[in-house]
């Protein structure tokens, strides 16, 4: 009763470890909301990712999938 549907029906989940965002304050980039250049260039990357059986944990009284990253 306490298992969430996903706890049994998800065969894998993405598991990301490590930093995913890098800031380079010596550069600028376009802020698409403000429609102008702003200081700092942000980039996203993957450091380590795998697709494995989902780890389970508790959220309140329910057993749910925990996704690191």
TrEMBL record:
Q: What is this protein called?
A: Amino acid ABC transporter substrate-binding protein
Which organism is this protein's natural source? Dissulfurirhabdus thermomarina
């Amino acid at each position: 009763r306490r298992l969430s549907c996903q706890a049994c029906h998800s065969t894998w989940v993405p598991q990301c470890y490590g930093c995913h965002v890098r800031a380079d304050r010596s550069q600028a980039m376009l802020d698409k909301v403000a429609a102008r250049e702003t200081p700092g260039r942000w980039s996203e990357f993957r450091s380590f990712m795998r697709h494995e059986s989902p780890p389970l944990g508790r959220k309140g009284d329910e057993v749910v999938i925990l996704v690191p990253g």
